[in-house]
Amino acid sequence: MAKKNTKKTKSKIVSAAWKLFYEQGYEDTTIEEIIEESGTSKGSFYHYFEGKDALLGSLAYMMDEKYEELEPTIAEDMDSFEALLYLSHELLSMIEETINMELLTRLYSTQLTTRGERPLLDHGRTYYKLLRKIITKGQKKGELTKVWSVGEMVHYYAMCERAFLYEWCLRKGEYSLLEDADKKLPMMIGGLRKTD
């Protein structure tokens, strides 16, 4: 029961923070407002988060929720390469449509400077587990190369996806993230396919 309440409290804080970030912007949102909106306490807030920047990392876990939704929609007979493209398409579509660019930019900048947790590199996340599962299956079925290890392929794929997000943030969304990735990602990860 305690574990469930712990998850519920943390979730309330995250939900309240993101609601306020969207409504009034990251800079204009205070920790006190997050605590009030979440109906929790200052002690609870600081038990889970070192400060406001730490909440930005929760965006990575919100993305994982999308991957959890997507996993059962991957057809059993879908080629592994196509499954990787499908995941990217769906996630980047969600990001472009629903994630505030200022928050995404801040997430990337805090990941570069933080001394604490770096959720984008947390290999325990659903994101990395799902990539390992798809790539392992693709190697077993002979769809993906065995020249690289599963770990190397996961790292490369994640690096390519981050490149699209970083460049899009750097250019302040002056083009469609989804269209750009749909056009270029197949070429970028083409080397993962098995060649005869």
What would you say this structure looks like, in words?
With about 200 residues, the protein is mainly α. The chain folds into 2 domains: about 55 residues, Homeodomain-like (Arc Repressor Mutant, subunit A), CATH 1.10.10.60; about 140 residues, Tetracycline Repressor, domain 2 (Orthogonal Bundle). The chain is about 70% helix and about 0% strand. The chain contains 10 helices and no strands. The longest helix has 23 residues. It is elongated. The mean pLDDT is about 85.
Strand-helix topology:
Elements: H1 2-24, H2 31-38, H3 42-48, H4 52-56, H5 58-70, H6 80-98, H7 101-113, H8 126-140, H9 150-170, H10 177-188
Count of DSSP-assigned helices: 10
- Shape type: elongated
Main sheet makeup:
none
CATH arch. level architecture of the largest domain? Orthogonal Bundle
> Which consecutive residue ranges, at least 5 long each, have pLDDT under 50?
none
CATH topology of the largest domain: Tetracycline Repressor, domain 2
Helix content: 55-70%
Rg from alpha-carbon coordinates: 18 Å
Sheet-strand content, in percent, reads under 5%
